[in-house]
Amino acid sequence: MRPRPLVVFDRLDLLEWQFCQRVSRLSLNRPWRLTLQAASRLGDWPVWVLLIMAQPWLQPNGAWRVMQYSVIALFAVAVYRLVKTRLCRERPFITYGEGIVCCEPARDRYSFPSGHTMHAVMFSVLVAAHTPWLLPVVLPLTLLIAISRVGLGLHYVSDVLAGAALGYAFALVSLYWMG
């Protein structure tokens, strides 16, 4: 008998499979695939590290923000890894091999939740609170990162939604505890 969380994921997987299949087929279009791959690579870490390191130049209390953003990012990664390694939901291209086009190497076997989306949403909320004038750049990037996770065949929509919810929650915790 499979553990209850895995049975729930099996049902979600079947419901999401057709949608993920359609979205991942869009990545056969080369310009769209390259856009999604670029967004995915930016969401790996470079744009967020740059955002963290730029805080002293972006706002008066920027040195404090470097610490705040770094602490919450490390905390988020720790919780994310704990959840991901406990739930062990396989990526859609693994579960539905020929039906899902995978256009980017996966870092590991499991998909739930989306760490890229988690960080993108978390930093978007922090940017909205501290440097809202950056939102016209950060929000479209966040949306592209979230779309790229499904479009590249690496995540289910529910992985992305869960990552977004976690990112939002971590940002709120950070704002509550550190301002």
From TrEMBL:
Q: What class of enzyme is it?
A: hydrolase
Keyword set, alphabetical order: Cell membrane, Hydrolase, Membrane, Transmembrane, Transmembrane helix
User: Which transformation does this protein catalyse, written as a reaction?
Assistant: di-trans,octa-cis-undecaprenyl diphosphate + H2O = di-trans,octa-cis-undecaprenyl phosphate + phosphate + H(+)
Tell me where in or outside the cell this protein is found: Cell membrane
Membrane topology annotation: Multi-pass membrane protein
**Hydrolase listed as a keyword:** yes
Q: What is its EC number?
A: 3.6.1.27
Q: Which residues cross the membrane?
A: 66-83, 120-148, 160-178
**Signal sequence segment:** none
Phosphatidic acid phosphatase type 2/haloperoxidase domain span? 70-175
Q: What is this protein called?
A: undecaprenyl-diphosphate phosphatase
Q: Which organism is it from?
A: Vreelandella neptunia
